[in-house]
Write a structure and sequence with these properties.
about 650 residues; alpha/beta; Rossmann fold; 4 domains; seven-stranded parallel beta sheet; binds iron/sulfur cluster
């Protein structure tokens, strides 16, 4: 049995799908390339446009290969939606078609209820007054659930309560735990051990890499779907950060400021050392508040700031944290479990102290240092400027086969940018067009006179053009902004000027509810920034127009972007243009989701026509009709309505 036969016109998939089967040569080509790279232990990068059916193109060869060699492979996605599609639809379907193989959805340990911590929470009265009701509900659920998974709960648990009841890696005793036999997490781990295919997300994959393989069972190959996100997630996981909330969380777990309960009141032996530690925790709370407040003058104007000088604030925090660690380690706990817990908290204090030191003395090479404030949360972060070296060694150098796939991986027709960013040397490369007929299905309308965004009257001209576009489309439009500020201004103006349309703006309700409403309300306009460029899938007539407000260049003085650009000879063309091109393609890709979809993409940034780099953007999208005449755009929609 080979993958191309299984997916071919007379293959098992075609027989199982009957009338629903579509022969897609690009899908077969991708499956053959995946099969070959698994066999040859080689890395592969595949760009496959929307509609190729890429999940089956990698799952079929992966299932056959893992089953034949009785080995394990990971499929890592960025979004939960794709993860659910794999686990709820594609893999059960393949199990029916291909016969028996095993797969498991892997989620982080903190998604499982920890029976031991939950019992301590209840019996030790470690909850607050407002948590009593939710705690009772959680208890009722805990006696019935088979998985202990948070996602099974009908109502979201209070975050603070769940944090006290969930599995946490350093507080998990594994086989030494007295709850071992009933443990939800360990049961899930044992299922994962039996599986051929593990479905995870990028975050969990990099958590595994960052802990030297402590999160996932061993595997031979990995497929990253939505691989255009890999650099950002890896950057997050390989960084070192400390926040006032993380210090507070440690202190509150030892001795809650409000309830005056915690590990320190739960220990069996309550001797003088424990009393001293209580005082120490209270003292540290004040020190921590002062430490983070010292950052405030730097963050009062800008919410994020790159820190170029060492010791921007005095290090009054790391030493007391180390003293806390030492004092915890000097305790004489009564049982092995208490000892393990005390050691875990001592290690947490040490790791926070070391994060403070690294961030202040800027001792890690190749990192950019920055601080951020979001309401009452202060954050000091050291982020790796370049993850290529680490990924080359720990990902591409270790797994036999790594496959990167997405609808957008190339810029200006080549993979050079993404390969350089990720440290992927000499992989097999494959670029597959979408099977959709974009020349028939889509129109690109580029507005004129909107290239100088600093010019006076720009916002008014932008709103006037957007108003004309929305008048023509009568809603059914997704508007993608690059800044929340511009989104707000335009929404305010257009709500007044086009009262017949329903404007749904990011931030006004959770994204999934905005999208649900957009689908169900006629004449709706959905306005979003950042995540809306990539995560939205609205097939059919509900979405007929995507407006791109500006070419999505990363903000050049954002700390990580700025530090990456400093390392390049020609940062604009080597970094900013390809990065923006990839995001532009993602935005463009929101429009045509099935072969019957029809619609237009509108670009309200004339630089795409007037600047040299504009060609990179135009070259990177599927061939379609292009116009800069609003009249033609209007005719297109009239024809669409007939
Ligand atoms: S084994 Fe770990 S997760 Fe399971 S009950 Fe014990 S401490 Fe909690």
């Amino acid at each position: 049995m080979n993958a191309t036969k299984v997916l071919g016109e007379t293959g098992m998939i075609a027989q199982a799908m009957r009338m629903a089967y579509e022969h897609r040569p690009q899908q077969i080509e991708m499956a053959a390339a995946v099969e070959k790279s698994l066999r040859d232990k080689a890395h592969l990068i595949v760009e496959a446009g929307t509609g190729v059916g890429k999940s089956l193109a990698y799952l079929v060869p992966l299932v056959l290969w893992t089953r034949e060699g009785n080995v394990r492979a990971v499929v890592a996605t960025y979004t939960k939606a794709l993860q659910q599609q794999l686990v709820d639809k594609d893999l059960p379907f393949l199990k029916n078609v291909l016969g028996d193989f095993r797969y498991a959805l892997c989620v982080g340990g903190e998604n499982y209820l920890c029976l031991r911590r939950f019992d301590y929470l209840r019996i030790g009265n470690l909850y607050e007054q407002n948590e009593i009701e939710p705690l009772n509900r959680l208890f009722a659920w805990s006696t019935m659930t088979k998985t202990g998974l948070r996602s099974e709960l009908e109502t979201e648990p209070l975050p603070g309560l769940w944090a006290k009841a969930c599995r946490q890696a350093d507080l998990c005793f594994g086989k030494d735990c007295s709850y071992y036999k009933d443990c939800f997490y360990l049961k899930a781990k044992s299922i994962e051990q039996q599986a051929h295919i593990l479905v995870a997300n990028h975050h969990l994959f990099f958590a595994d890499m960052a802990t030297g393989g402590n999160v996932l069972p061993q595997f031979k190959a990995v497929v990253f779907d939505e691989a255009h996100q890999v650099e950002d997630v890896a950057t997050d996981y390989l960084g070192v950060e400390v926040t006032n909330f993380s210090v507070k969380y440690l202190l509150d777990t030892l001795l809650s400021q409000r309830t005056r309960k915690g590990l320190l009141t739960r220990l069996t032996v309550q001797d003088a050392e424990v009393q001293i530690l209580r005082g120490m925790v209270d003292g540290l709370r004040v020190v921590s508040d002062n430490f983070f407040l010292n950052l405030h003058p730097f963050l009062s104007k800008e919410p994020a700031l790159r820190i170029r000088q060492r010791n921007i604030v005095p290090d009054i925090l790391s030493e007391p944290l180390m003293e806390l660690r030492d004092s915890l380690l000097e305790l004489t706990p009564d049982s092995q479990e208490e000892e393990l817990e005390v050691k875990a908290f001592a290690a947490r204090a040490q790791s926070l102290a070391s994060a403070v030191r690294i961030n202040l003395d800027q001792s890690a090479e190749g990192f950019v240092y920055w601080a951020e404030r979001e309401n009452l949360r202060y954050r000091l972060v050291a982020s790796p400027i370049d993850v290529a070296g680490t990924l080359r060694e720990n990902l591409f150098g270790k797994a036999d086969t790594v496959i990167l796939t997405s609808a957008t991986l190339s810029a200006a027709g080549a993979f050079t940018y993404i390969k350089n960013r990720l440290g992927l040397d000499a992989p097999t490369e494959l670029q597959l067009d979408s099977p959709f007929d974009f020349e028939k299905q889509a129109l690109l309308y580029i507005a004129t006179g909107l290239d100088d965004q600093q010019a006076s009257g720009y916002q008014e001209r932008f709103d006037a053009e957007l108003k004309s576009v929305l008048t023509i489309t009568r809603g059914r439009t997704l508007v993608l902004f690059t800044s929340y500020g511009q989104l707000r201004k335009s929404a305010e103006t257009l709500r007044k000027e086009l009262p017949e349309l329903g404007f749904l703006c990011q931030g006004e309700m959770p994204a999934y509810r905005l999208i649900e409403q957009f689908k169900s309300v006629p004449r709706a306009v959905l306005m979003g920034t950042a995540s809306f460029w990539q995560g939205i899938d609205i097939p059919g007539e509900a979405l007929q127009c995507v407006v791109i407000a500006k070419l999505p260049f990363a903000v050049p003085d954002e700390p990580i972007v700025e530090a990456r650009m400093e390392r390049l000879k020609n940062p604009f063309f080597e970094y900013q243009v390809p990065q923006a091109t990839l995001l532009f393609r993602q935005g463009f890709g929101r429009l045509i989701r099935t072969k019957t979809d029809r619609g237009a993409v509108v670009v309200l940034d004339s630089r795409i026509m007037t600047k040299i780099y504009g060609k990179s953007f135009l070259k990177s999208i599927p061939k379609c009709r292009i116009t800069d005449e609003r009249e033609r755009f209007s005719e297109f929609f009239e024809a669409l309505r007939k």
